[in-house]
């Protein structure tokens, strides 16, 4: 710690964890992405998108992510945080995604994520998104 600087708050440390997670998520490296999640972590996605919505455990999330990444030209969906709120163990972040898909479509969605972080590990993620955009880009014929 440099003289005159205060140690980071728990909220700042949790925000740093989520920021690092989003940076790694944007690379498409599934094992590295999963390394940020606690073994008991869950990922919940809003809506009724077949194969995407609902609650997944860490392994199921990794499988879904691998499947989605295979559909992209770069092997990844880039996440760009736009606005943050952190309180206690919760970090909320408004986010924009971007990816070009092998089917010629462009995935560019807006999200509101709510993360629960403890001791540098993500325990849960809730993902709110434009499900109709996701359906049109990933699932429509």
TrEMBL record:
Domain SnoaL-like: 18-124
Pfam families hit by this protein: SnoaL_2
InterPro entries: NTF2-like_dom_sf, SnoaL-like
SUPFAM superfamilies named among the record's database cross-references: NTF2-like (SSF54427)
Name of the molecule in the record: Nuclear transport factor 2 family protein
């Amino acid at each position: 710690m440099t003289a005159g600087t205060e140690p980071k708050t728990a909220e700042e440390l949790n925000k740093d964890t989520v920021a690092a997670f989003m940076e790694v998520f944007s690379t498409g490296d599934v094992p590295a992405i999963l390394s940020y999640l606690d073994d008991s972590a869950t990922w919940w996605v809003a809506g009724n998108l077949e194969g995407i919505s609902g609650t997944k455990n860490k392994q199921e999330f990794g499988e879904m992510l691998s499947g989605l990444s295979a559909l992209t030209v770069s092997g990844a969906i880039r996440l760009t945080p736009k606005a943050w709120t952190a309180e206690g163990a919760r970090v909320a972040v408004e986010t924009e995604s971007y990816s070009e898909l092998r089917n010629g479509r462009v995935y560019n969605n807006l999200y509101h994520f709510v993360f629960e972080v403890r001791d540098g590990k993500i325990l849960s993620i809730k993902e709110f998104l434009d499900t109709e955009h996701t359906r049109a880009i990933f699932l429509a014929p």
